[in-house]
Amino acid sequence: MGVIRLFAAAVAGLASTVVMAADPDQAIRQSLQKIQPDMPIEAIAESPMPGVYQVQLEGGRQLYASADGQFVIQGYLYQFKDGQAVNLTEQAQSKSVAKQINSIPASEMVVFAPKDPKTHITVFTDTDCGYCQKLHSEVAQLNRLGVEVRYVAFPRQGMGSHGANTLTSVWCAKDRQDAMNKAKAREELPAASCETPIAKQYQLGQMIGVQGTPAIILANGQMIPGYQPAAQLAEVALGAE
């Protein structure tokens, strides 16, 4: 009798193992963990392409995998619809980036806003960056066009650099807008020290793929790398609403 019970338990355990192995979520996670044990997987779900699963990583990055986890694809997934090619990967990435960027509290940014903003952009900036300075000279024009400008920090040379120290002085100033104006005009700010979100924002920028400054994130999560003239940028930003 004891042998029968033991056999029954073994069969039940084997069935459970088979079910678990057939679970795409677990199979894909196991395969990806062999590639990178600490891979930051946020979610796994069926993609619009039959038989292919979409793996969402931290920072909005996307991978694709077979249900059994034996095949992994890194690249863009397009859908041809009504004679047009839609980049589904970029859509998913932008949605994820928008969620992360738009959740940053205003208290952790330096914000230049018009009275009645029509949209907003979030700019990863470095005060030592020439094109960041050029973009900042057009913030008033962007405001007049209805675009709110939200600055987050991205010291290109890393934490501890001159840019990071200047950004710290901006974030620690009583009047952040005034300090940002002076820093972007290449005025040396008094050294300051306080608790800031600069390191966290720098890490977020790296995670979502920021490689230089200015990196402009539209309200829908689309990234525009580099400087754009105010009129052109406002048109794109308003069109993304």
Automatic annotation (TrEMBL):
In this chain the Thioredoxin-like fold domain maps to 118-236
Q: Name one Pfam family in it.
A: Thioredoxin_2
Compartments annotated for it: namely: Periplasm
Keywords, alphabetical: Disulfide bond, Periplasm, Redox-active center, Signal
Annotated signal peptide:
1-21
- Which intervals hold domain Disulphide bond isomerase DsbC/G N-terminal? 21-90
Write out the GO cellular component annotations. Answer: periplasmic space
Q: Which InterPro entries match?
A: DiS-bond_Isoase_DsbC/G, DiS-bond_isomerase_DsbC/G_N, DiS-bond_isomerase_DsbC/G_N_sf, Thiol:disulfide_interchange, Thioredoxin-like_fold, Thioredoxin-like_sf
Q: Per its UniProt entry, which superkingdom is the organism in?
A: Bacteria
Function, as annotated, reads: Required for disulfide bond formation in some periplasmic proteins. Acts by transferring its disulfide bond to other proteins and is reduced in the process.
Please report which protein family the annotation says this sequence is part of. Answer: Belongs to the thioredoxin family. DsbC subfamily.
Q: What is this protein called?
A: Thiol:disulfide interchange protein
